[in-house]
Every structure is written in C-alpha cells, then in structure tokens.
Amino acid sequence: MTQLTEHGLLRLARDGHRDAFTRLQEMLEGPARRFVRRLIGPSDVEDDIIQNAFFALYMNLDRLDEGEKLRPFLFRVLRNQCYDELRAQGRYETISVDDERVESEVSTLVANEDRQPEEATHWLLLYTQVQEAIDQLPEPQRQALLLYTVADLSYAEIAEATGVSIGTVKSRLHHAKRNLVRRLHPDTRAALGAGGGEEVTNDVES
Q1: Cα separations (Å) of 165 from 37, 79, 155, 161?
Q2: Using the 8-state DSSP alphabet, how is residue 198 labeled?
Q3: What does the alpha-carbon distance between residue 53 and residue 46 come to, in Å, rounded to a whole number?
Q4: Under-50 pLDDT residues of the chain
Q5: What's the structural domain count of the chain?
Q6: Is the CB of residue 71 less than 8 Å from the CB of residue 155?
Q7: Which of 26, 30, 54, 172 has the most CB atoms in a 10 Å sphere around its CB?
Q8: Domain span at residue 35?
C-alpha cells in the first residue's frame, strides 16, 4: 500500500479495506500507548485498553467525519478507559512518577543518545522533576497538556476529545504551562531555559 495519510487510510477503512485499518492502527498505536502510559503508568491492562479503543474506533468508522474526528474519538475513548481503570484502583487523583517509568527513560537516554552516566543522571533528574510537576497539575490542565504534547492533538481536536470549547483548551494549556514553570525547581527552570520565579499556585482556567 502506498504511503497514505491518516485521512486517506480512514477513507479506505470506511470502504471496507481491512489492510487500511491495520495500517491506521500501526500509525496511531505509538501515540496512543504513550498517552495511556502517562495517564496510568505501567499496567497489566495497558494492552486491553489499547485493543478496546481500536475496536471501538473500528466499530464507529462510519460515524467519523473525514479525518477531523479520528484522533479526538480515539483519545477520548482512551482517556475514559484510563480514568475508569484509575477509579477502579482508587488512585484517580494520586498519579505520580514511579521508578519503573524513570528507569525506562534512563535506559532510553543512555542507549539512544550515547550519554555519559553523569550526563544521563543529570537529564534523568530534569525529566523526573518535569514529570512530577505535570502530575501535580489540576486534572483538566494535565489532560489538555498530555493531549497536546503526547497525543499531538490540535486545539480543535482536544476540544472535540474533551467536550469543551477551543477557548477553554487554550486557557487550560496557558495555565498548565504557567503552573508547570512555577512548580519546577529554579535550577531545573534554568537548565530548561524556562523563565519565571513566581510563587507556586494553581492557576485555574476561566
């Protein structure tokens, strides 16, 4: 099959081409899996969540408009399943960075970028602090930030996935970035080139 966009594959999949849906799933599975891991951490149910979401996508192909609703639909299903799992575990509001995820990131840094151990440790510390700061954001802001940075959704797609207006999405991202910078240690802000030294508070969107 020639190189096609998500929208092109969606059209073929809606016409009954199973290979097109398989290719579409291959294109979307990476961002989907990263999004799930950031929401719930390492979990035995990760594969089930991914499979259920793509099954829901397949069963609703005829209801999707030309591409615009593809990612919003998929990530809305993923988000809802993740939150159902977190509620079942009683940890909906207590997500934090865990050792297994951090260890995985260290291995990636060292293996893929040929860093010296001291440098890898430095970047690991920055990574850990940033992830912890993200996890401490108010949930609407954290969700919007992950959909924007991890799932690579546009403002309009995030609005569709979360059921709010584009203006609310922009507001949540604005406050998320402000809160994120405020929560970082001054040394971390300096290393990342981020400004700001305000008192740590939780901005809330209007």
Answers
A1: 26, 18, 9, 10
A2: P
A3: 11
A4: 1, 94-118, 120-121, 197-201, 206
A5: 1
A6: no
A7: 172
A8: 1-95
